[in-house]
Structure formats: C-alpha cells, structure tokens
Amino acid sequence: MLGLTLLAVLKGGDIIVDKEGLRKDLLAWRLKEVRALAEEYDKVFKVLLELLNDENPHVRANVVQVLIDMLSEGKLDGERKKLALDAVLGLVKDDDERVALKALEFINALLETGELTDEEYERVTEALKDVVKSGMPVLGEYAAEGLGKLGAKVAKIAYKIIRWLFSLIGSSKKREVQSAAITALTEMAMKTDDRKVLNEVFDGIADLLAHPDPYVVERALYSIERMLSREKDISTRNKLKAITRIKELKGDVKLGVKASQVLEKLEKSAVTSEELVSETEAKKRLEISQYSIDDIERLLDAGKTEIVAEMAKLDPEVMDRVLGMLESDDYSRRMDALWIVARLTSHLTPSDAYRILPVLGDFLKSKNPWARETAARVLADIYALYPGTSKFFSSLLDTLLKSGKERDVEGALELMARLSDRLPSREMLSGMLKLVLKLLDDDRTRGVTLRVIAREAQKLLDLDTEDLFALEDKLKEIYGKDGGKYDQIIAGLVDVIDDILKMRRQGIVPTSG
C-alpha cells in the first residue's frame, strides 16, 4: 500500500506532500505508485526532485529511475524536463556508482528525444566529457555512449566533440579513457544522419591504425568494422586510406586475423560502381531490404540467421529483439540469438554489452559445448571492448570456480582461455596458472581441468619457463591419483612440457615473456 505521500487535499485543489512518506515509498520500491503521483501533481514532482539530495543512495537512484520511466512514457516534457535535467546532471559525479550510472542512463535516454536547448546541450556535453576523461570503468563507457548520441543529434557540437575525443586518445595513457573515447566516436558515426560527421570520424579512426599502442589499433579495427555497416555513406577516399593502413597490419601476430577480416570487407565495399558489385552481394542487399522487424521469427524458422544478423547491424530495434532472444524459453531461439551476437560483438553498444553479460555467464554452464565456447568468445570480446566489465568477470569466475561443479569449472576455464587469447599478457597467464594449480589439487575439479589443459595445450608455449616447471611438478605430483584415471592425459602433458623446455634450450622456440 502506498505510504502517506499525500496528507491532504485542501479546498481549491491544493495538496500537502508528506516528504518522508514519499521517501519510504521509494525505499520500498513502490516506484510505479510514486511515478503516478508525480505525473499527476506538480508538488509531488518537485519534492521528488528534492529527494535527489537525500543522504541515502538508494533513494537518489530510485528517484532517477522514476524520472527515466516518466521520460519513456512521454510524461516528462517542458518545464519538468528542464527541472529534471538541472537536478540530475550533477549526479553523474555522485560518490555512489549506482546513482551516477542511473544519472547517465537518464541523460542518454533524454538525448534520444533530441529536444534540448543549445545551452542544455553544452552543459550535458561538458558533464559527459568530464566522466569520459576520468577513466572511471562502466561510467566512462555509458558517458561515451551519451557523447556519441549527442554528437549524432547536434552537428555543430559534433565537430568539437570529435576533435576533443581524438585529442584525448592521443594525450591519455589510460586504456579506459582511450576505450571510452573510441566508443563515443563510433556511436556518433553510427547514429548520425550527417555523412560529413561519419566520414570525419572514419578518417580519424583510420589514422589510429598507425597508433603505437596495439590496444588502440585493435579498438580502431573493431570501430571500422562496425562503421562498414554504413559503407554507402563512407567516402571512397576514406575506404582506400583504411585499406592501406590495414594492409600494414596483416603480418601482425595478434591483430593479423582481425585485420584480414576487416580488409576483406573494406575491399568489397570500396567498389565505386554498383555495376561492379558481385551478383551474390547484390542479391544479398536486395533480400535484406525486403524484410522488417516483424519478419524476424519467420526468418529464423527458415534458418536465415545471416539475414537477421545483417538486419541487426543496421537497425537498433532488431538488435534489441535479438538480445532479448538470448533469454527466450525456446532453446533454438537462444542458440540462434547467440550465433548472431557472436558475429556482431563489435556492434554492441555499452548498454547492449552490460545488458547481456549475466545471460552470457549462464551460457558458460550449458551442456552444449558450442554454446559454452561461443559465449566465452563473446564475453572475451566484450571485455576487450569495454574494460569497465572487469568487476563482472572477476565475480563470474570466482562464482564458477568456487562451485566445484564440473560444468561450471569447465565454463570458467573456457572463459579464461579466451580472455588470454584476446588480451595476452604474462601477468594474466601466470595468474591463470595459479588458479589451475589449485584446481588440480581438488578431487572435484582435477579431471575437467586436465581435459581443458589438454585441449588448450598450444597455450603451454605462451607460459614462461618457470611456470612450465611449476605445472610439470604439479602434474607429476598428481600422477597416480584417482586410481590412475587421468594418468594418460598427465603423461601426455608432461611429454609436451618436456619437449617445449628442450626446444627452448636448443633455441628452436623462444622463451616466453
């Protein structure tokens, strides 16, 4: 039952608002009821805004959620919208991360309406820039999404934002800042109706392909791949420039595969005459143009997942529908959605990525090996794209490994392997090895751990010599346990390690690290 928010309705229709009652309703999550009153009575709305200064972060966050809901229902306009923006803008720097995140969600939703004054756009721009520049995980990525939307809406602000973001990438050494800046630029390019803005971003991103930091280069590759879904709006000059830059990356050990994939798409799109487009490509474009969001179910039933994937690249509503299918009660729909998402990771906005993290984590426990492996690959890609997800990954791995369940542990090890593929480092490999050694000591997890090590034996080449000796010693220590059930796998792994160590002594393979 709603608290005593309205103490009395006086003669003439005036009301007295019980602020403490409203506060209790917010803490009790009676948000729908609070929203209804705020929509009907201006006094309730104003008291609601006052509670944005409440000492309890749950109250502040829930007030912002009410405002988000009002905005989505079209119940926040005119003077109310102005008052709400004024009150919420300062919360992007709130000490409580959840409150700051809610404030950014509100601003991003508000930017979708595109109905702010020039002065309000400027204030929002400065607030979002401050968050991006701070390098705060999660918050920086949501702020970047907002900057992208803002630049796409207001062309005269766009160029200032673009120059500032590229300058930030050049001056900052923090990956969280560089990542957020590239996210903002990519979002702007994808959402703008102005071809000049799109090409300004594409041109600058192509220059980043020559950046000295491999991480920035990789993010630039993903950005270009995503922008190619708007290939018709990208100038031939920009495409040729990107082709030249990417050809220089094909020999790169870490980036070569992705560079080749993007290069192939670029070279196809660089064809200047429609008559030269292949017959297959022309048919594909024509086929995609014939469908709408209402055709998704029918297309998936017909096995045309590739067409749905292409539609999702171009239409945020289709992408939203596909992401929702990851939680469908229909198993085949979940698998369809996972297949599509795995091919569109670079097209995920920060909001998209954070939304699907929990369900992807659940896929790691699947009986289906393909689902586990695919989910692990997508999760690793998301981690590389959005470093702010690191807390989620730490929590997920901790939960899976502590459960002791074979399938959970296998999912965790699969994810660890894919993370090391995407962001290889000596520190990461050494940290993973410490976890593996503990798992080998545990009777519950020894078997599955050995099977995964055998499956990922190629990665032993990446371990430094000290770590190889540590793993070999542990394998010899557990040899004969479990009635010799795993001795064949153990012996095979020991032989592989001995061969690697021998080749290193002979200089045949380099010492890792």
From TrEMBL:
The record's annotation in Pfam families points to: HEAT
Judging by the UniProt lineage, the source's domain of life is Archaea
What keywords were assigned to this record? Repeat
Keyword Repeat assigned to the entry: answer is: yes
Q: Is Repeat among the key words of this record? A: yes
The name of this protein is: Condensin complex subunit 1 C-terminal domain-containing protein
The organism encoding this protein is: Thermococcus nautili
